[in-house]
Amino acid sequence: MLRTHTCGTLRIEHINQTVTLCGWVQKSRDLGGMTFVDLRDRYGITQLAFNMDTNADLCLQARKLGREYVVRATGLVKERESKNSQMATGDIEIVVTAFDILNESVTPPFTIEENTDGGDDLRMKYRYLDLRRASVRANLQLRHKVAQQTRTFLDAQDFIEVETPVLIKSTPEGARDFVVPSRMNPGEFYALPQSPQTFKQLLMVSGFDRYYQIVKCFRDEDLRADRQPEFTQIDCEMSFVEQEDILNMFEGLVKHLFKQVKGIEINNLPRMTYADAMKFYGSDKPDTRFDMKFVELNEVVKGKNFPVFDNAELVVGICAKGCADYTRKQLDELTDFVKRPQIGATGLVYARVQADGTIKSSVDKFYDETALKLWVEAFNAQPGDLILLLAGQADKTRKALNELRLEMGTRLGLRDKNKFSCLWVIDFPLLEFNEEENRFFAMHHPFTSPKPEDIELLNDSNKIGHVRANAYDMVINGVEVGGGSVRIFNRDLQARMFEILGFTKEEAQHQFGFLMNAFEYGAPPHAGIAFGFDRLCSLFGGADSIRDFIAFPKNNSGRDVMIDAPSTIDEKQMNELNIKTIL
Ligand code: ASP
């Protein structure tokens, strides 16, 4: 080993020991008689001291060290005269007796400090330098710990980790596939897995009754801030279980992770049906760190000649505690917020419950004090509260109000990143209708089992949309961190499902025959779940973006700007792959 210790280990008890450290020059300070160099490695920073009086040669050499030079230094651990309580090693310094430069560095394009002067693009281009910064490094250490603890927990529960292939077959369901041309099979392509779904189900048929894998998945979707084309899942499957068993097992995993990674004990997860989540929060991933539940007011507000409400399918609102003193300007801001095209409301109606109990609304023309009192009752609003209402087509209005609720939660400081609120959302619909394609799609995926008591409804075209699935999501702080379902394990039901999804018999056989055939050889009842590993890490890290928890992420256009990928390939490679050049 080139070193005896790391830059994060030395403390007062090491005084008078001779040590050798290796690391990068964070910065150096030349104070005339003394030169100090901060040496950094993965573990921390240690101060090196060079004394002009006792060792002028060494001191002069040290003065020439540039930022990010790689240095090895040997010296005596000494108690510092002026200690630095901000640093773990701040009680000591190394009085250097010998050092050598292991490698030089050109001036880095940005400062490798917490408050770096490097913008996003520059830091991504030089990601290997960005990864030297303490916070980014800490994120990867946290990620490692989450992975490690996941394995510890699942291993203790008899799960085994099995690797499934990365070159698989493209299927039309779900998101868009990334495809890989096959040189040996001209004109044919592999696809990269969007998830190991079918393979983990086949492993259940094989009898591996508890499987997991921390696995890369690929989806060629338009990117949003919190999406990456390749991402990692904790993918799990179990046999001989019911939904309840899965919920309990993976609630256990999440509790274990909170305890081990964050030192937090979390309570049993409450469960909310999809129907309630939509009714009370307008979202299938409600942020339950705060209340502010929706209240529907159709019955209360109709019949007062206010056409906006009279013509609306749904009038629904929230009560923002203590916001009655919002100024005209603040209310205009909220109105502009809900009218933004992404949110799409046509307007916002408000009612202030004033300190003396009187009510002042934006629709006083139509609603007198008595009428408004009914609003206040419906919300159980108190003096000082602000009622905010939206109206229109039911689904759209709920979605818009969800955005407004989150915005109010943020404004009121109710979305603290260090507070965690977890729940299960259950009883998702099996299918959702897609207007554009005029057909049903599987809400989770085509392998999800309908609830046995709803199977009958599959034969009634009017009721098919009401069939509920044994499907569940785990939601933490308004983020869907995991989702899964009880699976179909019967060939006929699986075939029926494909038929409902618009597959011909031949198409279903061609695409998924391998799975349906396997179901004929003694498939056990099974169910599973997958967690978004990157998201879970960013949540534990108190961050919004998953990008900082991935060592080498892609940018918003799906590019790796460091290695410059994707990139063109040369003619010869194209020919080998039987791909015609696009001119
Ligand atoms: N494979 C599913 C997904 O990636 C999760 C599951 O059903 O286990 O969303």
What does this protein look like?
- The chain is of the alpha+beta class and 583 residues long.
- It folds into three domains: 12-103, OB fold (Dihydrolipoamide Acetyltransferase, E2P) (Beta Barrel), CATH 2.40.50; 141-164 and 194-273 and 419-536, Bira Bifunctional Protein, Domain 2 (BirA Bifunctional Protein, domain 2); 290-411, GAD-like domain (Gyrase A, domain 2, 2-Layer Sandwich).
- The protein has helices at residues 56-63, 120-125, 127-130, 134-156, 197-205, 243-262, 274-281, 298-301, 307-310, 328-339, 369-379, 394-411, 491-500, 505-518, 533-540, 571-576; strands at 18-30, 34-41, 44-51, 70-79, 92-103, 160-161, 179-181, 189-191, 210-218, 230-239, 271-273, 295-296, 314-320, 349-353, 359-361, 386-392, 422-426, 431-434, 439-442, 471-476, 479-486, 526-532.
- The strands form five sheets. An eight-stranded mixed sheet has the order 6-9-10-22-21-20-17-11, with helices on both faces. The protein has a five-stranded mixed barrel with strand order 1-2-3-5-4. Strands 12-13-16-14-15 form a five-stranded antiparallel sheet.
- The protein binds aspartic acid.
- The site of aspartic acid has 8 residues, from β21 and β22.
Q: Give the averaged pLDDT, no decimals.
A: 95
The strands making up the biggest β-sheet line up spatially as 6-9-10-22-21-20-17-11
Number of self-contained structural domains:
3
**Can you name the CATH architecture of the largest domain?**
2-Layer Sandwich
Count all strands and give the number: 22
Radius of gyration: 30 Å
Count of alpha/pi helices: 16
What's the main sheet like? 8 strands, mixed
Our estimate of the beta-strand percent is 15-25%
CATH class of the largest domain: Alpha Beta
Percent in helix: 25-40%
Class by helix and strand content? Answer: alpha+beta
Ranges where pLDDT stays below 50 over 5 or more residues in a row are none
What is the fourth-level CATH superfamily of the largest domain?
Bira Bifunctional Protein, Domain 2
User: What shape does the CA trace take?
Assistant: globular
Distance between the termini: 55 Å
**Oligomeric state of the chains?**
single chain
The fold-level CATH name of the largest domain is BirA Bifunctional Protein, domain 2
Q: What is bound: which ligands? A: aspartic acid
